Fold each of these.
Amino acid sequence: MVGMQLNPATIRLQPALDDLVRLVDAVESFAAEHGLRPADAHALTLAAEELFANTVKHSQPPAGYVEFTLGLADGVVTAVYIDDGAPFDPTARAAPDTTLPAELRPIGGLGIYFIQRTMQSFAYERLDGRNVLRFTRKLA
Amino acid sequence: MFFAAMNVAIEYVNDLPIVIVNGRLDTVTAPAFDAHLGPFLATPRPRILLDLSQVGYISSAGLRSVLQLVKHTAAKGGRLGLFGAQPAIMEVIEISGFPTLVDLYPDREAALAASKVESKGA
């Protein structure tokens, strides 16, 4: 929930690439703390990075902050990614055509698709002037 | 710190270039990777091998850099040979649909052996 209490797994970031280090550190620490397997850790870090990169590069006007929370219950990792940038629903984007030959491959558009493919759920909500993205990954 | 670390080296076996990456290929490091390969890619090449065995993490930004190598070799009618990808990296490569664009090998030996056969046949 958006109104959830801050807990040790919540991190608040400036939407600048310099802060990607902190975001990745937070996910890696969470993964280590809970003994996540490399594939799960990789998928969660990837999802966090792709969303953060989108916020940093594309939010216009720029977002003021990003907040990211990770939780684990019953073998499912739940992540909540929030920014206060312009309304943007990445879950509404069409999947890229991953069958195109090399010369026709667009150079972008894969990030969100990774999240859709590696997470069991990925949902967007515009709430109180913020973009709220929730995704879950069931641990193997 | 582990995060910022990304090194790239180019090694030649006979005339075949092997691009060896060590570290993370992500939003932060991909521009450095591209910059490093700029002069190398000034020469058209139909065949390049990419060693991902020491890459522990790749995001869409990293794949974008790999795609540049794919397009570079495709422009000369060739293909990028990619080897050593760890399972988590391979999952991302598969989701991207890259297996139809590149030649995948388990390790350096297999990649070199296959490249030798291909250059003879060409």
Note: The domain at 15-121 of chain B is CATH 3.30.750.24 (Transcription Regulator spoIIAA).
Amino acid sequence: MKTRPFLALFVSPAALAALALVGALAAILQYAFRAFVPGSMEPGGLTLANFEALLRPLYAGVFLQTVWICLITALVTLVVAYPLAYAIVRSRSVTLKSFLLITALTPMFLGEVVRTYSWIIVLGNSGFINSVLRGLGLIERPIQLMFTTTGVVIALVHVTLPIMTIMLAAALSHIDAAYEKAATSLGAGPVRVFLTVTLPLSMPGIVAGVTTAFAWTFSAFATPQMIGGGRVPMVSTLIYQLGFASFNFPFAAALSVTGLALTFAVLALAKAALSPLERMGAH
Amino acid sequence: MRRPLSHRLLGLAGKIAVGLVVAFILLPAVVVTMSAFNDKAIMNFPPTGFSTRWFARAFSYSDFSSGFRNGLIVTAFASTIALVVGTGFAFVLDRYEFRGKKAMEAILTSPLVIPHFTIGLGFLILAAQIHAARGFAVVVVTHVVLVLPFVMRSVYVSLRNLDARLELAAASLGARPGRTLFTITLPLLLPGLVSGWLFAAILSFNEFTASLFVTAQATQTLPVAMYNYVREYADPTLAALSVVYIVVTALLLTIANRFLGLGKVLNVEHGR
């Protein structure tokens, strides 16, 4: 094996890591089909009861609400992130470029707790938004933002903004500016150039950004937990509650398995639905 | 040539849009900073007086200092292990073909889309099943799996940009593969390795959701301690700690950008 030095040496640690992950996922899958024994951490015999319980309106409703929140968040984030990504890629000043890039990235590295806590101070009844609006005499009683879907979505957009910006910026930076110049020299106005050249060519980034934002929103826990305060239930908060308040780990596992299946289904669906567009921007 | 008025208006609208987005991103950081220096225990706006006592409390609160220590332990192990594992695999991804390569790549990058609560729950159950104690080992393994995709990507991008002729030159001059690796390949990869390790370290130190599942009281990391604090107290101590977090993270990213070029690492600008 002279042509492939170090292959085994380099692959084995990664194989161990992959094995650990597969083991963890297999453990969830196995628990999902076991019975819950109240008062005991050990699961009982094999059963399908966990998945039957999922069909009850209460739990099915949480799933629908979660998907809805993920969709709204992904789309709003796309609209908010696009101008920022565009400015990062196209700005001619290096200082401005670095400032925008670091501003866009810092929230991603802060972690969900710090970010969500900050949003509590912004959204609360005596928080920033309500104090400013009241100070200006625009409202008399505070607008309820905490414990509402709107509040959760606002904070979630903030959470998914960095990754969306990175993906859009990556796509935009690979567009050859000559295409836009050509369109302009042929007489197209800036709006037309954007709509017929830039936007279609950035489609791969849009597809990647929206699907990733969807997955990240689905994965978010601290934000719906702290801002929703139990009144905006999502799959993540439900799983935590089942595990650590009722110790019903088999049902929590069944929810996780279903959530995972749903995530992959949505990712596949989005990809299939948008693949004609992606091909359009692929050359 | 002056651009027509409509074009200039459009450019202005674009600048305003970017300004609003930047304001939206920075708003929580600004508000949390104002709150951190407010002397009142309740969160109110505008702040009534200046005080640094919340910083004093944040630094003296024992759960935060033990969380900080635990976090450093987990981060040091997890990011370093992830760097070794990720570099090896990125190397293999770039250079070799073997059976199962695609599957392994799919598994190892899957934590990018698998919810962290699922991974946390999975390792919690796995640890219970193999009767492992809920110590640091479980937390470290969970973090390695979570940050691995970022290390792999960072190193892989550097490998792609590496000029293979330098390695060929070394080999043709008689260097054995091991020598080429250590004297040519790894030094050339250094920026990618450093940025990969830095990303992994920051992400691991700040990871919350999976950590909430796999940590116990004795292994609680800082974000978990912070989450528990918010549930018990409503004073601005956490705001003070958040300010420290924001400043340190922004500084680290600025340094990383200065020396490594975040744009290139993240693929948002073309490397030359």
Note: Chain A has a mean pLDDT of 88.
Amino acid sequence: MLAYAFMRHAFAASAVVALIAGPVGYFLVLRGQTFAGHALSHVGFTGATGGVLAGISPFFGMVAATLLAGLGMGAFGAQLAERDVAIGMVLAFALALGMLFLHFFTAYATAATALLFGNVLAVDIATVWLLLALGLGSIAALAVISRPLLLASLQPELAEAKGVSLRLYAVLFMAIVAIVTAECAEIVGVLLVFTLMVGPAAAASRLTRHVLSGVALAAALALAEAWGGLSLAFYTDWPSSFSITLLSTLVYLAAAALASR
Amino acid sequence: MKTLEFQNVTLTLGRRTVLASVDLVIDAGEFIGVLGANGAGKTTLMRAALGLLTPSGGRIRVFGEHPRRGNPLIGYVPQHQSLPAGLRLSGFDIIAGVVAGHRLGLPWLSRAGREEVSWALEKVGAADLARRPLGALSGGERQRLLLAQALIGRPRLLLLDEPLISLDPRHQQGMVDLIRDLQKELGFTALFSAHEINPLLGAIDRVLYLGGGKAALGPVDAVITPVVLSRLYGTPIEVVHLNNRIFVLAGNADLEAQPHLHEHHGASAGHP
């Protein structure tokens, strides 16, 4: 199957995204902010369709929108956390707005499906390099802030007393999550971002007792699920996003069963 | 030598004045029990000493200096820490997070850091506990780990905010004895808040009683009296001694037995 260029691109792109989504997702799970990733992807949909309408690439539109929303969520996260109805309304409106933008361009159904459910088989080599560059930037940023972020996530009161600014790290982390969300959406679509970012990380956090082994396992599981899903899609002709999500769900269920023994 | 000094200090949360013009001096090596009703300002006082809350009036000195965040001379066990559900991280990994926790970088421990964490765990007799997931520990075991965490870096002042919450009486006594023994051995100063005086009797040197925006600091027999407490609560208070235990009563109600509610702080998790 690697004889085809589009499959090689798909494997490369999903490897880049999986290896970044796993570690970022691990921290997202630790912080109990998994829903934030889902919320960001909705906003990303609006950004992508708005980008097309404005004549820029949908990926850049998506990155810009998730980044803005991520910074906002980081800065006002604690106040927002208690207002789930308000967040739900904003998300619904974001999706509806995205739909309106789609309405204005012609390739309606195909474009919408690709954004919502991903189209990793259509990724070209230029996009792979772009994903790699953004991904390396995100993972480097995460590595630099990981120690104070860990303390702020697990013991916020203590972190504050030790001089760690909770808001600063919330904002920086959400900016990283925003970029990785847009990357994941490129592979599995905005509706299935959970598949790569949360599924492997949640499984890993249930199976490990140490931060570093948890991060490593999250990355490994994400990679295995992405590549396994692509192979499965190639031989069964199922949509690749479905295959990846199927593996992600099965791995999570297995991990939950193992951990609760 | 003075460890903690409040001069005419007023502390406010939002519009509420928690402490008004309070003076107190705590000397090095003292073990102080901090008491008072819910919302009397026990947590607020500790947060002010940590530099997390600037007094709206007066002057605070910690080891003769302005309070500042991240002061390595202070160890802190915050009240009621909740951890994400289903978390399987080991106790060791969690408490080790405080080692250089404010510095950028990967959460890798140096050899010295690892030895420091092991030393602290050894001191509270929790070396074995720390290998298990924190979520799988009992309340008492968990408090011991968090106490070990506060010892990391060998602070000279320990602020312990309600470490007895959710412990049964036997474990409460064990915790108080452990802290008293550590304090004797290591020589730090300790502020230990509780909403009942009895587990602390015999262990503390002095009591700091907060109420009605005021504070009373002194030996237990001098502070837990009808005269002093009536002034703090602003209502007639009776103090009954029974079998070496003390009961503080207003009318017919045992004031220290009321269900515990956490003080509300606008600046808790997430938004300082």
Note: The mean pLDDT of chain B is 88.
